[in-house]
Amino acid sequence: MPPPTTITHVLVIGAGAMGSQIALTAALAGYTTTVQDVSPSQLDDAAAQLRERTDKMVKSGRLAAEHAERAHDRLAFSTDLDAVAPAADFVIEAATERLETKKAIFARLGRLAPPHAILATNSSTIGSSAVAAASGRPGHVCNMHFFNPVLVMECVEVVRHAGTSGETVETTLELARSLGKAPVLINREVPGFVANRLMGAVQKEALALLAGGVASMEDIDATAKTALRHPMGPFELMDLVGLDVVDYIAQATYAATGDPADAPDESVAALVTAGKLGRKSGSGWYSYSR
Ligand SMILES: NC(=O)c1ccc[n+]([C@@H]2O[C@H](COP(=O)([O-])OP(=O)(O)OC[C@H]3O[C@@H](n4cnc5c(N)ncnc54)[C@H](O)[C@@H]3O)[C@@H](O)[C@H]2O)c1
């Protein structure tokens, strides 16, 4: 897809797991891209990891060496938001999941970014309505929710809040398509948007089936894969996402809805308390040899 005509420079805030890959995706798609983070060491790590990633892609034949080099030439890293924000046409905020942090970032972006710039947040749990007013340009604000790992996953949820303009929605969808993604539009903010709600519903049912002794977790996972063609079973997926993340999302959803049906699952919380966070800690629902 051709890029939206109004966008040449993408600014990504946060060089963590998501921000770094969002930035590389934008650079590979031809955008002049800057990644800004408050932590210089995080920026150094991100730069090294992205270089490793493209080296692997080149080695395996998935990416031409020249294309990779050009993408790296387009990619800049900075700790100085004041210096980089004035050049941005589109900002994707992927900083730490804390409302106060995001509000402060949106307030600064509102002052620093050019008036036409769209300000999107990649947050999984914070709807953009929570940061829109701070930016002073609520019509230019929406969620642009990527999935992990960004370089692989095609879906991007574009979520509008009540004041997001039609033009902002269209430009954001167009940008996502130009990144090679398959965006979907979510017309209003609901906790978990669509993908995490679907995943949550499957997880909730799987946990209830296990707790009720209906089937073992291995057999529930096997059923999801062999009957429904899910690439992973719900317990395997929870281990991959991280049980702390699963628990956090449930807590945030419950806090937003107050619906007892959304209350965090006790067996997940018990695993988190025991330090069993899934693959990343070596065990969760399953054990993983390191
Ligand atoms: N991890 C996932 O699977 C996932 C998936 C979809 C969306 N998200 C969302 O993406 C966002 C980032 O998640 P992540 O997993 O990449 O987090 P992360 O912890 O890996 O990275 C966050 C980065 O933000 C930086 N940061 C903190 N405060 C900042 C500030 N004021 N200015 C600039 N940088 C700042 C930190 O130094 C860190 O490098 C969150 O909003 C999260 O909800 C995460």
From TrEMBL:
Pathway: Lipid metabolism; butanoate metabolism
SUPFAM superfamilies: 6-phosphogluconate dehydrogenase C-terminal domain-like, NAD(P)-binding Rossmann-fold domains
Family: Belongs to the 3-hydroxyacyl-CoA dehydrogenase family.
Coiled coil: none
Protein name: 3-hydroxybutyryl-CoA dehydrogenase
Domain annotation 3-hydroxyacyl-CoA dehydrogenase NAD binding: ranges: 10-187
InterPro entries registered for this protein in UniProt: 3-OHacyl-CoA_DH (IPR022694), 3-OHacyl-CoA_DH_NAD-bd (IPR006176), 3HC_DH_C (IPR006108), 6-PGluconate_DH-like_C_sf (IPR008927), 6PGD_dom2 (IPR013328), NAD(P)-bd_dom_sf (IPR036291)
A Pfam family matched in the record: 3HCDH
Superkingdom, natural source: Bacteria
Organism: Arthrobacter humicola
Keyword annotations of the record: Oxidoreductase
Span of domain 3-hydroxyacyl-CoA dehydrogenase C-terminal: 192-288
